[in-house]
Specification:
The chain is built from 15 helices and no strands. The chain is mostly helical and 256 residues long. The chain has a single domain (2-251), classed as ADP-ribosylglycohydrolase fold. Helix 1 (2-15) packs parallel to helix 12, helix 1 packs across helix 14 (234-241) and helix 8 packs antiparallel against helix 9 (151-161). The radius of gyration is 16 Å and the shape is globular. The two termini are 15 Å apart.
């Protein structure tokens, strides 16, 4: 489950710096205010559905977890969907579609299964083509990274098959000081952070240093980095686990 912990660690580290812009490169990774957000809640929801071989009913898992942890920072559009009757879809291309899919990339045995799961866990709340594309990009990057493919292989798939541009000018993006919340912008930024990194921690630091929607970008980038670099540092794992509810740790196989 280290890949999922990699995504969750990014969320927790980024939570304190969300909507900030003057973040130093040597910022403190964890402090008393570092906490899990809706990114983690929904990541656990998807993981739970996959572990129960119940991805076709992922809508129920997403809604149940959102209702059980309502103060985690959910956006109003997602909350409105949660309160709708079962089967009502939401034509959203928000990055909530891509932030929660680390378990898909981590658990899928082949690309066919991955693409099937992406549809099942994304369409209920984010049925816009850009949301499905963004979720596919993050999950496929994780899948390829865990299977030993190179950064060049991942870059080529993302740019050629999904037609994302990964030529991100990090300094320019940071200087704009405009938070982005949609798949079209944040997904390629997260992947570019991974491609630019030297190890897991450097990936998270770059994703957060950019400012804005730091928890979500670091969550997406963190899952890929954990898959590629073989997990996350032990000190970070300890910091993450002590901030998670017992129920989350059970799903992760880290509790009883």
């Amino acid at each position: 489950m280290d890949i999922i912990l990699g995504a969750i660690a990014g969320d927790i580290v980024g939570s304190f710096y969300e909507f900030k812009w003057d973040i130093p490169k040597d910022f403190t990774l964890f402090n008393e205010a570092s906490k899990y957000t809706d990114d983690t809640v929904l990541t656990i929801a998807i993981l739970d559905s996959l572990l129960n071989n119940d991805s076709e009913n992922s809508e129920q898992y997403l809604k149940r977890y959102a209702k059980n942890y309502p103060n985690s920072g959910f956006g109003p559009g997602f909350i409105n969907w949660v309160l709708q009757p079962s089967g009502v879809q939401n034509n959203s291309f928000g990055n909530g579609a891509a932030m929660r899919v680390s378990a898909v990339g981590a658990l899928a045995k082949n690309e066919e299964t991955l693409l099937k799961w992406i549809q099942e866990v994304t369409v209920p709340s984010h049925n816009h083509i850009e949301a499905i594309k963004g979720a596919t990009a993050i999950a496929m990057a994780i899948y390829k990274a865990k299977n030993g493919e190179s950064k060049k292989d991942i870059h080529n798939y993302i740019t050629k098959e999904l037609e994302y541009s990964l030529n991100i000018e990090f300094e320019n993006f940071r200087e704009r000081q405009i938070p982005e919340f949609i798949c079209q912008t944040t997904v390629p930024i997260a992947i570019a952070c991974f491609l630019e990194s030297n190890d897991y921690e450097s990936c998270i630091r770059l994703a957060v240093w950019l400012g804005g929607d730091t928890d979500t970008v670091a969550c997406m980038a963190g899952g890929i980095a954990a898959a590629f670099y073989g997990g996350i540092p032990l000190f970070m794992k300890k910091e993450v686990l002590q901030r998670l509810p017992g129920a989350f740790k059970v799903v992760l196989g880290q509790g009883s």
